[in-house]
Structures are given as structure tokens and as C-alpha cells.
Amino acid sequence: MCLRVWIDGSLTDSGAENGGLADMEKNTAKENGSGWVASMAAMVAALECDYDRLHELDDARPLEDADEIAEYAELNAAATIDGDLMDDADAARERIIESPLSVQVRGDWYSPGTMEKPDASEFEILLSTGGPALRIRGELDQCMQPSRAWLEYQDWGTGWIQYFEVAQYTLLSFASCFYFGE
Q: For residue 180, is it within any domain?
């Protein structure tokens, strides 16, 4: 099948020989993933920022020492999420908690009729839906904390595809802000 589409003001053939429409959709979904990865990295940096030192330097302004000026700029950048300067780690954590559309868990296999229902063993944090959609999936340890996580994206008519260009640390730090117990 060959489809003619407009790209940059010109008519182009899009078929199996050059990736087709599905690849263009995957790129849109992957770009959504890339944007979310940058946002998650900024949220985790703000969560881990040394706010005590930031406030100490802020109170000491105007700064004259070059090292303190550089440190202040670095801490300010770390404490900023999408252009908003966070007051403390709690504000960064709140931003993380408010960012997904839903957080869900599911348990292991078990025999029906048993009195004991298993604890959750997996989680999903849905970040966006539709075309494109993005989610963090992962495994929970015995203390109901994320132990492993991965990012997946999809677009209309495609299955979930793992997004590899994200650090495990970023995903686990982001996911660790959520409560997965009952």
C-alpha cells in the first residue's frame, strides 16, 4: 500500500519502502516520550535538590564569590520544573504526584477460593492517553516499592513499544513518589 501525504509543503509517497504511516505515528509517540523523559528528569532533580543550601545562598545575596554564584545558579536550575521554581522537595513531590492521569497496581496469580488475596506485584503509571499514549510499568518488591520500571509508548493502531532512552534511576525515583499499597 502506498499513501501520498503532505510533508513540509510537498506531496510525498509514504509506503512500505520508506517506513509508512505507522512509522510516522511511532515517531510522534516517541517524541511524546522524549518530552516526558525530560520533564521527569527535571522533577527528579527538583525532588533531590538541596533546598537548605539554596535558601542559604538566596538569603546571602548579593553573592560575590564565583563558586557560590555558580552553585546558586546550579541549585536554581535543579529546583525548577517547567519554568516554575519549587520552594522545597514537598512541592516537587506534589508536582510528580499530580502529573499522571492514573496509577494502578495488579497482583500475582492465585487460586480462587483462597482466603488470602495476593499483594500487588506490578504497577502502571499512565502519563498520557490516546495518540500518543505513554506509561511507566514496573515491578513492586515485597515492601510495595518499585524495584524495576520501564517506559512504553504507543499511538493509534500500534501496540505498546518500550522506550529505552531513559535512565532506570529516573523512572524509579519518579515512581517511588507514589503509594502502591491499600
A: yes
Count the domains in the chain: 1
Give the three cell numbers for residue 15.
509506503
Give residue-wise pLDDT tens across range 74-124. Answer: 999 999 999 999 999 999 999 999 999 999 999 877 777 776 777 789 999
Whole-model pTM over 0.85: no
**In contact, 52 and 75? CB cutoff 8 Å:** no
Count CB atoms within 10 A of the CB of residue 79: 25
Amino acid at 5: V
- The answer for residues whose C-beta is within 8 angstroms of residue 12's C-beta and 6 or more apart is 4, 5, 6
Which of 130, 127, 129 is closest to 151 using CA atoms? 127
Is 168 domain-assigned?
yes
Whether 81 and 93 have beta carbons less than 8 Å apart is answered as no
Extract the C-alpha cell encoding 2: 502506498
Query: Residue 15 belongs to what domain range?
Result: 1-43+100-109+118-182
DSSP-assigned states of every residue in 125-140: EEEE-SSSEEEEEEEE
